[in-house]
Amino acid sequence: MPATPSFELDPDLLRGKVAVVTGASKGLGEGIAARFAELGIDVGLCARTEPKAPSGVRALTGAVDVTDSDRLEAFAGAVERQLGPIDLWVNNAGILGPVGPQRDHDPLDVAQALAVNIGGVMNGTRCFTHHGRTGPTGRRVLVNISSGAATSIYQGWSVYGATKAAVDQFTRITAAEEPGVYCYSVAPGVVDTEMQTQIRRQQPEAFPAVERFEQIHREGAWNSPAWVAEHLAGLLTGALKPEAVVYRVPDEPR
Predict the structure, then answer these.
(1) Among 121, 113, 110, 127, CA closest to 71
(2) Distance (Å, rounded) from C-alpha 132 to C-alpha 135?
(3) What does the pLDDT look like over 188-246, one tens digit per residue?
(4) N or C: which end of the chain has fewer CB within 10 A?
(5) Of the residues 160, 182, 184, 247, which is catalytic?
């Protein structure tokens, strides 16, 4: 039997809402989009590889690199024209690498991680808050996908952890600047995605915590994308009201 969150989702408050999800061609983003569609949320989905549109709702998809601010802005405008004002924006696009001791990192790999994990979040946030100024009033929610790595010390994840810590602080400041937008930096917990496969391929010399993630894999102790999506939907309706901007999705009951 599927797990249910501690709050109740009102389908009438979700039907016809419009959400944008970046990095939606695979993994967590694809799973979030699929569950949103099941909940009746219309979706604008983008990634470097154009996502597939889920059935049952209105959808707009696009091949968009979040580091390209002009293309992301154009996509946001197209979503508004075709689907309506954006109620929820999920900055999900991100990359894991480089992994290993910082002394060995290629500066180009570091620059790419900063551009996607921080710059992409900033570009998406700016698109959403900019477009929202001309839209109708109502509950508008920004979600920036973060990670427990923002606060945990994982040797070999200096760049990834630093980018997620930056996302947390950026979201806190955005929340102060945008009182008309509910802003959250959400750590989804460990989700079984391609990124987790990349993690398990690491050698202990590069990433000493690899055994922990191998054990999670063996035990199947994941949060499903649908579980994460339901918590984001709770943020959209107000059924879920975290006490702070930075929020961690609880572990999914087994």
Answers:
(1) 127
(2) 5
(3) 998 888 777 888 888 888 888 888 888 877 877 789 999 999 999 999 999 999 999 99
(4) N
(5) 160
Per DSSP, helices labelled H in 66-119 are: 69-83, 107-114
Residue 250 to residue 227: CA distance in whole angstroms = 9
Tokens of 234: 């709770």
Q: What are phi and psi of 132, to 5 degrees?
A: -65, -20
Residue 231's domain is classified under what CATH number?
A: 3.40.50.720
Judging by beta carbons within 10 Å of its beta carbon (0-12, 13-18, 19+), is residue 6 exposed, middle or buried?
A: exposed
Q: How many domains does the chain have?
A: 1
Structure tokens at 247: 């929020």
Give tens-digit pLDDT for 130-150.
876 554 557 999 999 999 999
Structural domain contains residue 5: no
182 in active site: no
Is-above-0.90 flag for pTM?
A: yes
Peptide bond connecting 242 to the previous residue in cis, omega within 30 degrees of 0: no
